Batch of 2 targets.
Target 1
Amino acid sequence: MKEFLDLLVDWGNLGFIEFLNKLDPSHFQNVILGMLTMLVPIGVAVLSYFFEKRAEGKVDTNLELFILLKEILKVDKILFFSTLVLFNFIFYKNYFWVFKIVLIFSFLAFIIWLIWSPFRNIWKWVFESDKDFALKFLKKYKMDKKILLKSWESVWVSKGDSLEEEYTEIFCGLVNEIISEGDYNSATIMANVYRKHIKNRDYYLIATVVLPNLLKWIKIETKMEREGKFKEIKFFIVRGGFLEITFLMIF
């Protein structure tokens, strides 16, 4: 660090390009590693808390954990960009001076984002509304299927919620998207999660949101039956248990 400060003092005696060439990239790498080191205790504390809750059988904490890691702390993005910047500084000495400037500005932008983004999200999550993060997270279908399943399990295991209507609409839209992609196995799994906790659901929402979508899926089933693909879609409708929802509404 002393060498870096001395270099700044001598800035006036050096040409700009020479100044760039004499910068030691290890200083930038040390700053990033130091910032990541500061985040480790926070991560350990968070994971310990949630794993303790999970060990107690509280499935509904899974969604909170995924939201905290992916939407609030953005751990995956922090690790990706940290690795990217650290890797580029390894070759700093070999870069043309223009790329050195770009890399330094990228480093500064990353440090600002690393400090600002997680703490801003934590503030909003704690003092404003954590529901916005839940809705945003659940709308992301392209996430890992295991995370997707555990997240919706956390949603449906609870009895009633002020956002159950929004959750139900997102869920049905998600199932529609999965069916349109031909992934009937995932649609079956999702249906089973909903059916498993059907007694906790609002029957009005079942009638007004789920049932119209069910009729749409049965229409798809009929069309596929005519095309000789009945087994695939029947696997979803019957095993997924949405017919049971219909019987529940009728009887």
Target 2
Amino acid sequence: MQQAAQTPHDDRDDTYRGPTDPDIPDDTVTEAVPVIRSGMPERPAYRSIPRDFSGSEASRPAFLHVVAAVWVLALLVAVVTASAIFFDKAAVQDALRQGLRSDNPSRSAHTINNAVNYTLFGLLAGACVLTLINGLCLASTWGGNRRARIVHTVVALVTAGGLVGAWLSLHDARATAYHLTEWGPIAVAILVIIGTALLFAPPVRLGRVS
């Protein structure tokens, strides 16, 4: 009897390992890789590629360079206005005293002097604090922090409101400080609003951050 020819045994594992193979972990994706084996038709094999769940996709507004330029310009106008008030401090204080005295004739000179000094000190302290906070928010937005834009918007609106309040507080001294108190705070407030509106430009992706 003629003995049937035996097919040589191939001990290689030809088991199909596709995306639904239970031996492949759930947190992986598969990528098809063509494999050519002698004596067999070409078919795709799969290799496991771990998914990258680290970090999140960072983005920032497209016109952030323009935003930074607007904020720098606002800071320059604010510094110039504050410098003008400082160098013409005596005239500013006299004008504010006269305004308070006419509105409050029953108040003593000491009370009016204290009110003027506290007003100027409060304006200076508030400007320094808000400038620092806005700078930190802008730096975080530049780095791609999504929440920083919302925080920056809130702080910027508070800043604009404070500038309008400062402009109203210096109403009686608008003819002093080289007339910068007449338009300086309003100009800074307008620049702040413009810089805040530009924060909502379409975002630009920066890549994945941890």
